[in-house]
Specification:
This protein has 271 residues and is an all-alpha fold. The protein has eleven helices and no strands. α1 crosses α11, α3 crosses α10 and α6 packs across α8.
Length: 271
């Protein structure tokens, strides 16, 4: 009796998990299907036919390339800034002790915990009060606020797992601070930084809410997609671009997962 009950419970859990995954991922599969539909003005189901012409149409539209270029530039620069600031903040919090350390840690991670609309309104108000015109750099500043958090979370966890004896041994052997960072600390945190950078790039690349409040008249790729859905022109082209966004954001996240899943193997972590 107990065995049959446990088997039925296990089947119920598997069924619930399968339904949950289907609910999450079937809409994404529909995006891929509608990228090949032959219908231009509506989303009929089933599609009346299939064609790959929309990929050529998307390739030849300059507004898509402008939005894509802007998104890649913003994500790249925001990620680079986040890597520097997030690593420095993580090193300060993890390797030193000072008054208010936990408060500083909370303030660093707060932007990603707040609703995006709150962050966006706060940034827009700050830029308006400072008479700062909305531009390419205001978008980067907005994205950096949450990109820093991703890098910080990855880096601080790795810093805390590095044995202090490694750093002490490096100093005892005559290495200065820069040499210790280059030869001892950096090899141990490199995968965490790379994973954090990839996640930050993915988050920045498909960000909508904060960008809406900080972009002014410029359009990143997600903003372009939102505008196309409101005022559609060649609907399948939007789905083609959505496919690109899914792939561009999925690959860094997948790579980050494989880089950090063996994080237990840290030099000196068991000593």
């Amino acid at each position: 009796m107990r065995s049959s009950h446990s088997q039925s419970s296990g089947f119920g859990l598997k069924l619930a998990a399968g339904l949950g995954l289907a609910f999450l991922h079937l809409p994404i599969l529909l995006i891929f299907v509608y990228a090949f539909t032959a219908e231009e003005k509506s989303f009929q189901w089933p599609p009346p036919g299939f064609t790959a012409k929309w990929f050529a149409v998307a390739w030849n539209r300059p507004d898509i390339w402008e939005a894509l270029t802007l998104s890649v530039k913003v994500a790249s620069i925001a990620t680079a800034i986040a890597l520097v600031l997030g690593t420095l903040a993580a090193a300060a919090v993890a390797r030193t002790r000072f008054f208010g350390r936990e408060v500083v840690s909370l303030l660093v991670i707060l932007p990603i915990a707040l609703p995006g609309i709150v962050t966006g309104i706060a940034l827009r108000s700050a830029f308006s009060m400072g008479d700062i015109p909305f531009s390419f750099w205001t978008i980067i500043l907005g994205h950096t606020t949450f990109c820093v958090v991703v890098v910080y979370n990855n880096a601080v966890a790795r810093f805390r797992r590095i044995s202090g004896s490694l750093i002490e041994a490096s100093m005892d052997l005559g290495a200065d601070g820069l040499q210790t960072f280059r030869h001892v600390i950096l090899p141990n945190i490199a995968t965490a930084l790379l994973a954090g950078g990839m996640l930050a790039f993915a988050l920045s690349f498909d960000e909508v809410i904060v960008t809406t409040f900080t972009a002014g008249q410029q359009s990143t790729l997600p903003i372009w997609m939102l505008e196309e859905l409101i005022r559609p022109r060649q609907r399948p082209v939007t789905n083609v671009v959505a496919m690109v966004v899914v792939i561009v954001t999925f690959l860094p996240i997948l790579a980050a997962y494989y880089m950090t899943r063996d994080a237990d193997q840290i030099a000196g972590s068991g000593k």
